[in-house]
Design goal:
With 76 residues, the chain is of the alpha+beta class. The protein has one domain. Helices cover 22% and strands 32% of the residues.
């Protein structure tokens, strides 16, 4: 079983393990009433975007396994 490269640790902090991240794959996580999107680019730099829109975060909290799909719906 592979470990998720972006997790909330036992101290309730975001922990990133870039060694196991796939380049250009989004890793979403809900933390502190925001959605954070992490990805490693082709230069192996870690990027992070924060989404704070209340209704989007609420939808994601109800369906945490579908964060990417929820965000894709916003783009339509």
């Amino acid at each position: 079983m592979s470990k998720n490269p972006v997790e909330i640790d036992v101290e309730n902090k975001i922990k990133i393990n870039p060694e196991i991240m796939i380049i250009e794959k989004l890793y979403p996580i809900i933390y502190d009433n925001s959605i954070f999107l992490f990805y490693k680019d082709e230069n192996e730099l870690i990027n992070c975007y924060e989404i704070t829109d209340k209704s989007t975060v609420e939808k994601a909290m109800l369906n945490p396994d579908k964060i990417i799909e929820i965000l894709e719906e916003l783009d339509k």
